[in-house]
Amino acid sequence: MTLFILYLILFNLFTYNYFISDFKTLEIQENKDRIDLLITKIDDAITDAKNISNDYAIWDDTYEFIKNRNSNYIFQNFRKDSSTLEDLNLAFMVFVNLKQDTIYSNFSTFINDKKKFISTLLNSYEKEDKPTILKLEDIYFYVVKSNILRSDSTGEIRGYIYTGKLLNIKSLNNNLFKSIMIRDKMPNDFMYTKNSNFLPSIKVKNSFNDEFIISNLKIKDDLNIETHFRRDLYIKSKKQIYVFNTIISILFIALILIIYSYINYQEKRKYELKIKVKEEIDKQRKQEQMLIQQSKLAAMGEMIGNIAHQWRQPLNALGLVMQNIQFAYKMGDLNEEFLQRSVDKANMLTTNMSKTIDDFRNFFKPNKEKELFDVAKTIKKAIYLMESTLHNHQIQLEEDIEENIKVYGFENEFSQGILNILSNAKDAIVEKDIKDGKIRIKAHQTVDNVIIEIEDNAGGIEESIKEKIFEPYFTTKEEGKGTGIGLYMTKIIVENNMQGRIFIQDIPSGISFVIHLPNL
């Protein structure tokens, strides 16, 4: 019981960490994508200011205004009752000549000391001399500088236009993050950098709590933007994983209880059987041992079948749970790519667990290296595994096998291939309800080959599917009764691993599987 509890704890820890790590990766990527959008918005704001500034700078009227200071230019474009800057979403425009003398300035944002403001603007911009973000009078502006030229770009530069646009932190967010703000404190240990079309590399640092991914963006030395990205996916996924682990734990406990009860039931049956035959134990000892052995084999086969059945139902439920997660997150922030990857991982987990059951049910372990083995003995191993099943279905097995035939290859895999063919022959006879069902195995040696033939009297195979029987996942059985990989794996074993050949040929009463293996 202690080991069982330990297993459940380890299983829950493993599955939690396994899935939650992917959810964390997804939300980190989503946060990065939103940071990219934020930087793009900053670039767009600077581009917008730059385009407006350039439009004015290459206007012939502006070119003449810098020289003549024509008041009509100001009246037409920036008279007091106009809303030019507001319409252009600008905070200020400053026109200067080559000597940096202010020719004209206009502001839509209240500035206490405009002269000082312009002086600080010119000095600060000259240090960078490219579109940037400047902090002026404790306000952040997108600032660009344009050369004043003629519209046809002829003539010399007569001056410059400094154009500023207010950095509005709320409009910059626009639902990208739960909250966004400018912080005075600047962190040091940044994790990665992002590129901007205008600004130097933007350094980013992420920190986490249970509710938010907190990102600090060092836009400039004096500008640190902090974003809060709500971890909705992480919060929801934790709940879903807890539900998933609870369901699996309950199913596993139920399976253990069923197996325990079944074993007790079988032990009780064996005990009752021993009591009944005790008086005649000496006389019928051999028969009793046979009955007990048959009982054990039947119990083992039935238990294995039940284990496989009990496992696969929870695994199917697991697949549905994961698909429900997929549907739920489609309505939220979960993208299709990750959702599909999560479903694939859940299916991979169920496949591996199911494979464990199948491996237990198979009696053979694959050989790691080729070896010389006796064909007759190997075939008889496969026959031994099928004898009781064939007997139960009243199927007669005939053998015509030469002794002392040796081949080189993987003995256990070859035995498994023979078992696959026998199993298919048995299934065909049972499904078609053939009376006096018969399977015949022949093996003999020629100059060039060792030839094995396995015949049945199940009536043969339809012509339309003969070419498909060795294809992977092809089966004529009902859903859930066949995987369609038995004959495919047999073909791989014979032809790829043992350099032989396998094919089918018609016989009067059914079909014959023929295997040719090279002689030593």
Describe the structure concisely for a colleague.
Helices cover 51% and strands 22% of the residues.
Main beta sheet, described? 5 strands, antiparallel
Mean pLDDT across the residues is: 80
Percent strand: 15-25%
The H/E string reads HHHHEEHEEEHEEEEEHHHEHEEHEEHEE
Tell me the structural class: alpha+beta
- The domain count comes to 4
Q: Which value, in Å, is the CA radius of gyration?
A: 41 Å
> What is the highest CATH level, the class of the largest domain?
Alpha Beta
Shape: elongated
CA-to-CA gap between the ends?
54 Å
Low-pLDDT stretches are 287-303, 305-310
CATH topology type of the largest domain: Heat Shock Protein 90
In the sheet with the most strands, the strands line up as 2-1-5-4-3
Count of DSSP-assigned helices = 12
Helical residues, percent: 40-55%
CATH superfamily of the largest domain: Histidine kinase-like ATPase, C-terminal domain
Structure characterization notes:
About 4% of the residues have low confidence. Strand 9 and strand 10 form a beta hairpin. The chain starts with a helix and ends with a strand. It has four domains: 133 residues, LuxQ periplasmic domain, N-terminal subdomain (Beta-Lactamase, 2-Layer Sandwich); 59 residues, no CATH class; 128 residues, no CATH class; 148 residues, 2-Layer Sandwich (Heat Shock Protein 90). It is of the alpha+beta class and 520 residues long. It contains twelve helices and 17 strands. The strands form four sheets. A five-stranded antiparallel sheet has the order 2-1-5-4-3. A five-stranded antiparallel sheet has the order 6-10-9-8-7.
